Amino acid sequence: MGAPVLNIVRLRLADGVPISILENTLPGEFTDLTAEDFEKQGLYQLLRMRGVTMRVAKQRIGARAATARESELLKLPKHAALLTMSRTAFDNSGRAVEYGHHAYAPDLYTFEITLVDK
């Protein structure tokens, strides 16, 4: 049996309109976080409050057809196109502290990325 983790699924709204489904998995030390915690604070703010400093994240952005459940939650036609993003975020020590799999309504969401030369 593996180590405990916290798996959370959130529906993000903007002005009452569903724009994304956010699924995140966190290490076991965060299993005491509650739905109330996430109603009051954002995920990264909660992690910072616990002393986690995000250092680096690896993301993959793509697109695919929505599942029936995603179409229902995002109020999209069956099999509509979705934007997707998968992320693994690492803290100062290089430890993975967040795995995210997100689906976005493509007409209501954009990605903005800044690239910096090292």
Question: How would you describe this protein?
Answer:
The chain has 118 residues and is of the alpha+beta class. It has 3 helices and 5 strands; from the N terminus they run E-E-H-H-E-H-E-E. Strand 4 (81-91) and strand 5 (96-104) form a beta hairpin.
Percent strand equals 35-45%
Numbering strands along the chain, what is their spatial order in the largest sheet? 1-2-5-4-3
Distance between the amino and carboxyl termini? 41 Å
Helix/strand structural class: alpha+beta
SSE order: EEHHEHEE
- Low confidence ranges: none
Overall form: globular
What is the share of helical residues? Answer: 10-25%
Q: Which terms would index this structure?
A:
118 residues; alpha+beta; five-stranded antiparallel sheet; 5 strands; globular
Which helices and strands appear, and what pairs or packs with what?
Elements: E1 5-14, E2 17-27, H1 35-40, H2 43-49, E3 54-65, H3 68-74, E4 81-91, E5 96-104
Antiparallel strand pairs: 1-2, 2-5, 3-4, 4-5
In short:
The chain is of the alpha+beta class and 118 residues long. The chain has helices at 35-40, 43-49, 68-74, and strands at 5-14, 17-27, 54-65, 81-91, 96-104.
